[in-house]
Amino acid sequence: GNQLTWLNSSVGRMSALTYLDVSQNELTAIPLDVYDLSNLETLDVSYNDIGGLPSDVGKLSNLENLAASEIGMSALTDGVRVLTKLELLKVESNDLTTLPSGVSNMKLLKALYINHNDFATVPSSITNLPVLDRLYMGNNPWSGDQTSQLRSIRDNSPLLAVVTMGPNGCPTVTDASVASWIDGWDASWDAGC
Q: Phi/psi at 79 (nearest 5 deg)?
């Protein structure tokens, strides 16, 4: 990063802009004009203290890659529901406990990073993403039986090649075929809870 503390709203007038990476700075806000960049395909606001994304993010109809890791976000706006071209969503290292139902509209989503958050259960909004091939869910305080949601993900995402869940919390997976499908799953996690 460049240790930027503010971003000039004139960036919103760069109508041909397709890639904007302002990650690893000291920003506390992103000007709303940024969300008027209709040609934007990649937006990375990670590692700034912006507290979340506004519903205006849904105006970025051509967005394919959205990274909002470690921004102090406790809820992902439902404005993402219209980002139907999204292929990559990185919201790791925040304080998320759930994802909006609109995530299920992201039928082109290939990679989802929700690791290092506060999920206790696998979000139901990610159980039917047909081209998902990478799912990172490690280091969340899982509790209870996750078998049903994980089975739905496995059955509805045939291209899924990487699934991580991590040892945090006390997840239970009662179906051995589902457990074996998760990278690095260790049945002893269940026993230690």
A: -60, -20
pTM: predicted TM-score of the whole model, two decimal places: 0.91
Task: Give the span between the Cα atoms of 86 and 66, in whole angstroms.
Answer: 7
Q: For every one of its 193 residues, what pLDDT tens digit does the chain have, with 9 covering 90 and above? A: 678 999 998 999 999 999 999 999 999 999 999 999 999 999 999 999 999 999 999 999 999 999 999 999 999 999 999 999 999 999 999 999 999 999 999 999 999 999 999 999 999 999 999 999 999 998 999 888 888 999 999 999 999 988 888 766 666 777 777 777 776 565 555 544 5
- What string of H, E and C letters represents the secondary structure of 115-148? CCCCCCCCCHHHCCCCCCCEEECCCCCEEEECHH
d(C-alpha 118, C-alpha 94), whole Å: 8
